[in-house]
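Full entry
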Amino acid sequence: MGRRKQWVVQLSDDERQQLTDMTRKGVHRARVTTRARLLLLSDRGLLDRDVAERQGVSSATVASIRKKYTEGGLQAALHEKARPKQPPKLNAQRTAILIAEVCSSPDGREKWTMQLLADRLVTLGVVDSISDETVRRTLKKTHSNRGRFKVGVSPR
């Protein structure tokens, strides 16, 4: 005998009609439409693995959507909560320090690498930790290079 589902989806007629309309009209995001289909199939009493197989998702996804529906209702199951954004590691002052480092020459090297710059910012105590990708994105936004070309007035 199989386990009983912990979060059973029992849609009201109104909810069922709303979800059916959502799946038939292509005005919603693909993720929302998929979640609507998952709820409709779960409402029929299908096993998670069968629902997952039909929709091309994992069984864990089906279980997660069922849980969200039973705990928070239809809107909670269809739409994700907004996630809090992390403040940027490099503000204007810290970016200026990064650019100053880029303009200097690295010890024993021809040019800076992103990882060297990240390590240098940590060594200087500008940040506690930073990835080379964050350094790259910051330099890209400021249109900075890593010392490959001479900066300044070119001779005529």
